[in-house]
Amino acid sequence: MVERVGVVGCGLMGSGIAEMAARSGFDVVVQEVDDGRVDAGRRKIEGSLARGLRAGKLSEDDIAAAIQRMRFVTDLGELADRQIVVEAIVEEEDAKKQVFTALDKVVEDPAAILASNTSSIPIMKLGMATGRPEQVIGIHFFNPVPVLKLVELVSSLLTSGETAERAARFAEALGKHVIRSQDRAGFVVNALLIPYLLSAIRMLESGFATAEDIDAGMVEGCAHPMGPLALTDLIGLDTTKAVAESLYEEFREQLYAPPPLLVRMVEAGLLGRKSGRGFHDYGM
Questions:
Q1: What is the DSSP code (8-state) at residue 76?
Q2: Which candidate in 11, 147, 162, 255 could, as Cys together with 195 as Cys, close a disulfide (CB 3.0–4.6 Å)?
Q3: Mind telling me the catalytic residues?
């Protein structure tokens, strides 16, 4: 039974995963590359817990208990005793491979699960960066982690059945609904979602309609909770581009190719909500 959880990365996704693990009673160690990012990650978690308190979903005691269960470190070696480690760093294949190679050397328990929160990179590639690919699996959470219930569980051809079942039980212990996907770039959700988002970007790029009208069309006409361009801003334009590139590399289908407008906006640092401006202006 998993009791000790490690999280590598405490950005938007890592902070949410760490928070939910701590709230669910697990002992959590969160690793970041330096003290500045540790502090930023801790502030994200504290802010999320405070929002839970204001919404009446958490009590002061709940928050105090969750904070007590978390420890923040900069040394990856502090994850040596973890029974499951979830990698949640930037969506770049080489960077993730480096993390998995390092975790393979650091994590002592040969039965420990090494999981990735990747939204698009094939798990086999990450597993083969280790000497234990049977213990490597994808556990893909959705943003914001404390709110959205879905988790995609992705086994590679070499992931053991026991690893998959233990990973599913862990995700369910966080209150998540688990769906299973084959190990293909994009998995279930992004394989369907990304072409939709890219289509909206191409529509804007062509001058066919404004960003406001494209989003209003899908919200008011199709009862979507958020328009595709606003959703891209929430996901992050850089993340959207990275997932699209991963899909295009695997399938070589034009619907997955990042439009030039998306590429130029990422180059300009217009990344969506996290930068204050994307397809919409967030006044930061």
A1: G
A2: 255
A3: 119, 140, 152, 190
